[in-house]
Prior knowledge:
The complex is a heterodimer of chains A (377) and B (259). Chain A is mostly helical. Chain A folds into 2 domains: 29-211, Orthogonal Bundle (Cytochrome Bc1 Complex, Chain D, domain 2), CATH 1.10.760.10; 215-361, Cytochrome c-like domain (Cytochrome Bc1 Complex, Chain D, domain 2). Chain A is 32% helix and 1% strand. Mean pLDDT of chain A is 89; it is low at 1-27. With 259 residues, chain B is an alpha+beta fold. Chain B has one domain (36-258). Chain B is 17% helix and 43% strand. The longest helix of chain B has 18 residues, at 2-19. Chain B starts with a helix and ends with a strand. Chains A and B meet through helix 2 of A and helix 1, strand 8, strand 9 and strand 10 of B.
Amino acid sequence: MSCLFRNNYSLLLLILVLFACKKESRPTVITNPPITDAKDLSDISYNPVAVEIPNAFPLPVMDIPVDNPLTEAGVELGRFLFYDPLLSGNERMACADCHLPKGGFTDNLAVSKGTDGIAGLRSSMSLINAGYFTKGLFWDGRIKTLEEQALLPVEDVIELHNDWESVVEKMQVHNDYPTRFRKAFGINTTNEITKELAVKAIAQFERSLISFNSKYDRVVRNEAFFEEDELTGFELFFDEPNGLPDAECGHCHNAPLFTVNQYFNNGIDSVGSLEDFKDKGLGAITNNPFDNGKFRAPSLRNIALTAPYMHDGRFQTLEEVIDHYNEGAHFADNIDPLIKTRGLGLSEQNKKELIAFLHALTDTSFVNNPAYQNPFE
Amino acid sequence: MKHLIKILPFVYCLVFITCGKQTVEPIDTASLNLSFRATYGEETLVLDNQKEYDYEGKAVRFSKVNFYLANLVAINDDGETELSEVQFIDLTLTHNTSTEAEIGTVRSFSKVPIGEYKYFGLGVGVPNDLNKTNPSDYATSHPLGANNSSEYLEDWNGYIFVRIEGEYDKDGDGFGSNDIAFSYQVGGRENLYRSVEFESTLIFSAGETVNLDFELDIKQLFTRPAGSLIRIIDYDPTDINEERQIIMNNFEQGAFQLK
């Protein structure tokens, strides 16, 4: 492409192309005002190599936005940005500080603390298989895409507390990022580095976080067998007809993602009316009182690694979570019919079996995958 | 000029690539809008448990109604024209207020082959061949894919054809934890799939749009052949086998109508 534009007809071509589709033409390159003296990058090679998403059965095919295909250089740039404290105001905190691989990409805190040490209101969310979460992100679904999402933490005062302008400025004069942006997106000068490209790269990295090698997955692929207790746990989870009680979990945390990407009131709060939820969750976004107290059912993949649990981290252990479903759910006008306020009738033995199954959703090969670790270490 | 000629194919190529989607083709197809509305008897159905309806003297309210339709076809003497293999119709998204409920859920199809048809046919549920698949087999956003994995039951190895949820004031003293939050999930099995044909003269002419309005009466869906209403009980799929047959039969027998 660059050689094309070097010949004399480049202008003519450009005009022709623009003219031919005048109505639809959108600027393809978003250029920041030149804050610094732009450096030419066009001598650095740009040979994007597409990342093939592996056949991740039983995971489905991921829907990847056409304007942000995964490339090796893009994912790698995303990984650097994800781990780089340069994104925060005091250069102390990175995305990864609240989304650590060993915590299943959470921070293992009830509610997260930002770069200034101020606590937020909600618990960090796992980013495992985030590329499959296409019916809203966050506990309340307020954001649609990973690209949109990645814009937010940088300017959130209780997260990275910075502004994009200064992040972009730092990236433009950085000794490494300009080359990485060039290799990822084919930009020609340093002032073409933008926040839009930065979040595209972060989103590419997030879409590469695919977990499909838990024991459960291997059993589904006929590569392994469940132990007795895991098998019973599996049957309880999915209401298999085995004469035992139905735990109903699969309705909201269904395979293969172990979430159905929907919003429910799972009865953790005792409220007098729908207006009384401390955190209104989905209702604060839709302004529909019936949605108050509804949160996204998170994926249970690697759930053993992501304690504490729920949007506010109120439960420390999986045992506490199961006890909630088994006997502690509170009635509300919008409680989901699959949450039993009268309890599930699970015995102590059943609870252990269910937990054994939840442990079979842990994928250590994912958590320890070198491609996901801190590139600065 | 010589240079210009050299690059001309390139220019064409570029223009073609950038604007490929815009090339105007002569219109020789029609468009079709299908709308789906639900009622409870004569009343508009409002979901989100907002409105109470009479259930043989006790109160019932509804929170969710969704179902699969498959094999949507227009039929004439020459045979069938398929419009869609499978659709997931979620009335929950459009029945939160009575104003919205009047509009209903709309599905639009462009490029419907022109012609005259006598019947509109569809299946309620997921036909056997598709019911053997599962969400792992599809892209996330496909109607049978992971974004609708709530509608796939592992223990059935099949999809929920029809889901109706709500609350039933069993003890008649207002809704509370002693009452029944029900989730009627019907489907999974071949013998519950129902094919319905609606007689209607359909004329699809070039560039024209045909609107078909479907209405689903939830009360009629819950009515036994003898006229009384089916029991409402807590979610337990094995206990409502008879009720499931009744619900599915009612799709064929007037509860689902083309207005």
